[in-house]
Design a protein that fits this description.
The protein is mostly beta strands. The protein contains one helix and seven strands; from the N terminus they run ββββαβββ. The chain has a six-stranded antiparallel barrel. The radius of gyration is 13 Å and the shape is globular.
Length: 101
């Protein structure tokens, strides 16, 4: 498993796009037994409206664009799983992670 600390993150759904504010964001990439998966953990999110939007929506599919602390641009399609009570979210990747080796 590889981990990337993220410096910035954008989430897009249809014509709506949000820069995501966070205290800490980490991207995890897992390659195990021929499978590939990725997800992002977000902590310290202060955007209550964004968390509520996805908590109340049946459509949680998004596309993400992230930049790691080291400057690597990464992105892909994913599902946004909010946790408003903890000011956190998990974004579960779906398929390819563009920019990954």
């Amino acid at each position: 498993m590889e981990t990337y600390e993220l410096a910035s993150l954008q989430v897009k759904q249809g014509s709506d796009e949000w820069p995501v504010a966070f205290e800490r964001a980490r991207l995890f990439v897992i390659q195990n037994y021929g499978t590939f998966s990725w997800y992002i953990e977000l902590d310290g999110m202060t955007q209550g409206d964004l968390l509520r939007h996805f908590a109340e929506s049946l459509d949680i599919a998004v596309s993400v664009q992230a930049v790691s602390v080291g400057g690597k641009a990464l992105g892909g399609d994913a599902y946004f799983h909010p946790n408003p009570q903890k000011q956190a979210a998990a974004i579960r990747g779906q398929g390819e992670l563009v920019g990954y080796p």
